[in-house]
């Protein structure tokens, strides 16, 4: 398989995953996502979950449907989004908040290790 085909498949898979995650923010996993909102965020936790869900749906759609000339920009924005939401993962770990089956310090810490992989995935599949 050509490298460009692999990158396209990876980009579309990431985009579809973001759309799914965004929909889950707005529906069935909304309560769990509230556990990741740091206390210092100046918005209501539920509002933060809704706004981040909308952002994920938009980013996911952009990753899937962006024209060739804009892929790098969208990938950079997606990677910046993953960096921006990382404090939520840190808050879940630091404040021992259970959500998404992350009900032990070890599981919550292991989750932290995956965020850099998402950043890398967004960049490698679009650059």
Description of the molecule:
- With 127 residues, the chain is mainly alpha-helical.
- The protein has one domain (3-124).
- The chain is built from five helices and no strands.
- It starts with a helix and ends with a helix.
- The model has no long low-confidence stretch (mean pLDDT 95).
- Globally, the shape reads globular
Mean pLDDT: 95
Structural class, by secondary structure, is mainly alpha
Distance between the termini: 18 Å
Count of β-strands: 0
- How many structurally independent domains? 1
What characterizes the major β-sheet?
none
- Beta-strand percentage? under 5%
Low-confidence stretches: none
Secondary structure tally, helices: 5
Order of helices and strands: HHHHH
The proportion of residues forming helix, as a percent range, comes to: over 70%
Radius of gyration: 15 Å
Oligomer: single chain
How would you summarize what this structure contains?
The protein is built from five helices and no strands. It is an all-alpha fold.
How would you summarize the topology of this molecule?
Elements: H1 3-26, H2 30-34, H3 45-65, H4 71-94, H5 105-124
Helix pairs in contact: 1-3, 3-4, 4-5
Characteristic terms for this protein:
single chain; 127 residues; mainly alpha; 5 helices; globular
